[in-house]
Amino acid sequence: MALSEQSKSAARKTRVLLVDDHPMVRERLAEAIQREPDLTVCGEAESRPQAMEIIAATRPHLAIIDLTLKNSHGLELIKDIHAAYSEVAMLVVSMHDELLHAERVIRAGARGYITKQEATRKIMLAIRTVLKGGVYLSDKAAAHIAASKIGESRLTGGLTVDKLSDRELRIFELTGEGKGTRQISEELRLDVRTIHTYRARIKNKFHLKDFDELRQFAVHWSQTQEHP
User: Rounded to an integer, what distance in angstroms lies between the CA atom of residue 2 and that of residue 21?
Assistant: First the structure.
């Protein structure tokens, strides 16, 4: 039996997966995407496992990903998708500091980064850019990445967080959120001793004398991210 015209039209549309732990954000993005005649939302997810399950079932052309997900982190999801489904383009739409995260998500396999504060039309421009095979970054983020390549770095409280690896940064962020070693171990699915090892590396990179000093700095840093 031949497909109906409606079914044929749906089959020709570019499929977009939304991955965000806030339903209202997904709703806003879905409404904007569904207004586009050639785009359709093929699924929504709030966590890393759920996103991977939907990708396997729907094979989207584009995944729009927030960095903060339910019981997981968007950067790890980006790495998973890039490893298993390299044909899926990825765009990060997040509230987090683009100067801190943009280069990391590009390095992990995403093709763009835009903040949630931007107007919907700009987010749609980012979507179109990524779908055409381009990379979308704000001028400020692009300039920051270029500067880092020639030896400059962004400073936070006199210390650079750019020197942290992705895993170290995540542990530093969770420490700043007030989470203890056991909580971080469970969330990242790492042995407690491994968390201690990473924290020791962070402490050495920041030239901090003990864990209390590291925790105080992490909390202060976390507060500056929430209230720039």
Answer: 39
CATH of the domain at 174: 1.10.10.10
Whole-prediction pTM? 0.70
Q: What is the mean pLDDT of the chain?
A: 85
Strands 68-69 and 72-73: antiparallel
Range of the domain at 186: 166-226
C-alpha 201/C-alpha 94 separation (Å) is 27
Domain shared by 110 and 216, yes or no = no
**DSSP tag of 136:** B
Q: What string of DSSP letters covers 48-98?
A: HHHHHHHHHHH--SEEEE-SEETTEEHHHHHHHHHHH-TTSEEEEEESS-H
What is the token pair recorded at 11?
């089959």
pLDDT tens figures, 34-56: 999 999 999 999 999 999 999 99
Domain end, chosen from 119, 147, 175, is at 147
One domain for residues 189 and 117 = no
